[in-house]
Write a structure and sequence with these properties.
single chain, globular
Length: 211
């Protein structure tokens, strides 16, 4: 569960299983006035920086680079999801850098009168302890069949890859138990999803006004 709110503009964390559609829910929040901070985007930005490329190549060699010298994220993923110590090494290097940029964006959104809420869309929100910064946590719910179908279509993963990466995260039942709200995202009906997201934000705002 999230901490007691300390400011008027809510910070909302998104959690859910891989393929649940958290990014789609984040976009729905953005459409109704929220500022979104997506850890995957910040991670991508970090991996494009020359100093980060140089550091990771010093660890794992030039084989993790593409022909144009950019990092090959699939090769890096194959290393870190095969070796837990290497994953922790990478997280220990990247997470502080990502957190610094995330904090800068939070401050910027707080100062922006046009932003109703701040959304933290991070695959490892609970694992990284980012829920402690949130006024509310929303669990994006989707069944296994739907989630697997999505990662096959959008990421080109196999079922084995999906299950392997899912095991590296906190179990879904524990994620759900730590959420304040649930948004169902099993269907392809975006209007229904937008309505649910709007209701959720209104509920969070109402709850904060009552504190």
């Amino acid at each position: 569960m999230a901490n007691t709110p300390t400011h008027v503009k809510p910070i909302i964390g998104l959690i859910g299983g891989i393929g649940s559609g958290k990014s789609t829910v984040a976009k729905c929040f953005a459409e109704i006035g929220a500022g979104v901070i997506a850890s995957d985007e910040l991670n991508t930005q970090q991996l494009a920086l020359p100093e980060v490329i140089e550091e990771l190549v010093s660890w794992w060699g030039v084989t993790i680079q593409k022909d144009d010298s950019r990092l090959d994220r699939k090769k890096i993923a194959s290393i870190v999801f095969r070796d837990r110590n290497e994953r922790k090494r990478l997280e220990g290097y990247l997470h502080p850098r990502i957190a610094k940029e995330s904090n800068r964006l939070v401050a910027s959104f707080r100062d922006d009168s046009g932003v109703r809420a701040i959304i933290l869309d991070s695959p490892l929100l609970l694992e990284a302890g980012l829920d402690s910064k949130c006024d509310a946590v929303v669990f994006v719910d989707a069944n296994d069949e739907t989630r697997l179908s999505r990662v096959i279509q959008t990421r080109g993963w196999s079922e084995e890859q999906w299950r392997s990466r899912e095991k590296s995260q906190i179990a879904l039942d524990k994620k759900r138990s730590r959420a304040d709200h649930v948004v169902a995202n099993n269907s392809s009906d975006l209007d229904e999803l937008r309505s649910s997201v709007d209701d959720t934000l209104r509920a969070i705002e109402s709850c904060m006004l009552q504190k």
